[in-house]
Q: What sequence folds into this?
């Protein structure tokens, strides 16, 4: 019987917003606090417009990294961001479910309001 993929249970933090860049941090997966089992290969940070999940932006971070700056595409727009755990299963890299999300708005750029 396969084990469940690791899932983070803590909401990530938005440390800084500058223009279209969000600095996001998260706690590493921990077997006593989080769900699932297995080896953490890396993390996948995903952000999408709060009203449109299809416009997703993502970046990956190594298993030892818990801070990432991600560049989004639209100014003055609310984005929802979450982190999933990447694991290698039968030779393929698989992303577990996205953990809890946080919403943050990108800044206005120049004269845009």
A:
């Amino acid at each position: 019987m396969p084990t469940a993929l690791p899932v983070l249970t803590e909401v990530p933090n938005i440390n800084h917003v500058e223009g279209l860049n969000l600095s996001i941090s998260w706690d590493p997966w921990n077997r006593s606090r989080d769900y699932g089992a297995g080896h953490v290969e890396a993390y996948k940070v995903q952000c999408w417009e709060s009203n449109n999940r299809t416009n997703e932006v993502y970046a990956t971070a190594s298993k030892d990294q818990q801070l990432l700056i991600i560049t989004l595409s639209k100014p003055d727009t609310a984005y929802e961001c979450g982190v999933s755990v990447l694991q290698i299963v039968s030779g393929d890299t698989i992303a577990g479910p996205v953990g809890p999300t946080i919403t943050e708005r990108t800044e206005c750029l120049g004269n845009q309001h």
User: Anything to note?
Assistant: The chain has no helices and eight strands. Strands lie at 13-18, 21-25, 42-49, 52-62, 67-71, 78-89, 92-95, 102-105. The longest strand covers residues 78-89. The two ends are 53 Å apart (CA to CA).
